[in-house]
Amino acid sequence: MKIKLHLLCIPLVFLMIFTGQIAYYAIILTSLLWHEAGHLLMAMLCGVSVKSCVITPYGGEIEFENPAAVPATSLLWIALGGPIATILGIGLAFFMPELLATKLINVQLVLLVINVIPIIPLDGGRIFLACLYLFNPSVRAFEYYYWLSLIIAFILFMITLCYLPQSIFIAILCLFIWLQVLKEWNYRKYRLAFEKYVMKRLT
Questions:
Q1: N or C end: fewer C-beta atoms under 10 angstroms in the chain?
Q2: pLDDT per residue as tens, the chain (203 positions)
């Protein structure tokens, strides 16, 4: 399995250095790695082979060796692995020195809140997607869901712009998420064809 750092993380590192927050970014990166470890551990427990893992500013993107062979229940548990790890991380932070614990808890809470938003490519979106596999395996439902993800991501980005410059980090994060959703939307026909194939296999 290959673990990579997304290119967007590089300018964020320079931003933190120039603003004197490199230690804060170290906490963010550690939180992201801890969060992603939860996904990877859950994948291992579910017996799913992981091809690669890309660490992004909001978490990570996991690519499976054989996506079509992954059961919907495993997809659900793997998606839940990250938020569960983050919640455990918040709990462990209470046993750390107060100065470190405060910053760590704040980062973990932001990471958790962002990731449970029910849009692709966030964990909340993948949890919702897995539930669609299980309870409403309709290609049309998937298409509506991509529309909803695109709209919500755009609204979140516009809201963060109202609070600049304090919200610069969150604004960049929301822009990145919106671009990821836009990429999913542009390839939706191929994605939906794949979903249709998977749903036939599941049924």
A1: C
A2: 677 777 767 776 676 667 666 677 778 888 888 998 999 999 999 999 988 888 777 777 888 888 777 888 998 999 999 999 999 999 998 888 887 888 889 889 988 988 898 888 889 988 988 888 788 777 777 778 888 888 888 888 889 888 887 777 778 778 888 888 887 777 766 656 665 555 555 44
CA–CA dist 33, 82 (Å, integer) = 10
As beta bridge partners, residue 5 has 55
Cα–Cα distance measured from residue 89 to residue 67, given in angstroms and rounded to the nearest whole number: 29
Whether 156 contacts 118, CB under 8 Å: no
Rounded Cα distance, 23 and 148, in Å = 36
- Residue 189, Cβ neighbours under 10 Å: how many? 9
Neighbours of 135 (CB within 10 A): 9
Can you list the alpha helix ranges (DSSP code H) found in the chain? 9-18, 22-45, 72-93, 98-115, 123-135, 139-161, 168-186, 188-202
Cβ of 192: how many Cβ atoms within 10 Å? 15
- The arrangement of strands across the sheet holding 50-56 comes to 2-5, 50-56, 59-64
